[in-house]
Amino acid sequence: MQGFPITYQFYGRTLSSKFKMIGNAVPPILSYYIFQCMLDVKANDIKPPKESPYFHKKPSCNADKPNLGFPKKKYPANRKFQFSVPNLRYGSGVRFELSNNPKTKSKDWSFKFFYGNSKNIKQIPLDEKLINYLSPFLNTSIIEIFTVCIEKIIKQYENISSSKMQEFWISINDNNEVFQFLDHVGNCVNEITNDASLHEIKSDLIEKIVNERNKKLNENKESIFVGFYFLSILNKRIFKQ
User: Fold this and answer.
1) How far does the chain reach from its first CA to its final CA, in angstroms?
2) Nearest to 95 by CA among 123, 69, 67
3) CA distance 63 to 54
4) Sequence-distant (≥ 6) Cβ neighbours of residue 11 within 8 angstroms
5) Could you give the angle at which helices 221-237 and 140-156 cross, rounded to 10 degrees?
6) What pTM value is reported for the model?
7) How far apart are CA 30 and CA 27, in angstroms?
8) Distance, CA of 64 to CA of 140 (rounded, Å)
C-alpha cells in the first residue's frame, strides 16, 4: 500500500517495529514524483513509475521473520477510557463524556460534564443533587419522554456496572460494547432533544448551575439541559454514582 517493491526488506526485531518503519516512511512512489520535479521534468513528460527502468533487486540478506506469538486476550486491567457522548460535544472544551477511573477498585465509570478552557477546566457533578435541582423545571409530558429513553437504556443494559464496563473495555473481543453503549445513549439524547419541548428553558438556568456566562452554554442550553438530567439519572441507576 505504501508502494514499496515486493522484494524490499524491512529489518526489525519485531513486527510492530517493521510496521512503524513502513508507516513513518515516505512512499517510494511519492519520492519518485518529488525527484522528477527536482530534475525539472515537465509534468506531461513524467513517466509513470511502472515504466521506470529501475528494478529493485532483492538483497542477499533477508529480514528475519518476526514471531507473531498468540494474540492477546485482554488489555491491561487498568486501561483508561475517556470519550465524548455523541450529540453532546460542543467544542472549546465544553462536553459531556463517559470515562473511568483506573485508580479505583471497580474503575468507577460515570458520565461527566466539563467546560472552561485548557488553562481552567471545570466540572459539574452529574448526580442526584443535580436531578433534584432540575426536576421542578420539567412538566409531565417532558418527564415521560425522558422516562421512555431511560427505561430503554436500563432494560438493554440492566446488567451493566462499572466493573462490567471495565471488563468489556479490557477485552480484545468485547471492547466495542462500550462504544455501542455510548451510541445508544447518544441516540436517546438526540431523541429527547427533538421530542421534548424545552424552548422555555432559560439560559440563566444553565448559567446558575455552572456559575458563569458562556456562549457555548447559551447556544446549546436545551441539549445541555438534556445531558444534565438524562446522564445524571444514568449515573445513578447504572453506575450507582
Assistant:
1) 48
2) 123
3) 22
4) 63, 64
5) 50
6) 0.70
7) 5
8) 70
Residues 90 and 117: their CA atoms lie apart, in Å, by 12
Residue 238 burial (CB < 10 Å; 0-12/13-18/19+)?
Answer: buried
Is residue 183 within 8 Å of 82, Cβ to Cβ?
no
Strand-pair partners of 111: 98
pLDDT in tens, 42-88: 999 998 888 878 788 888 888 887 766 666 677 899 999 999 999 99
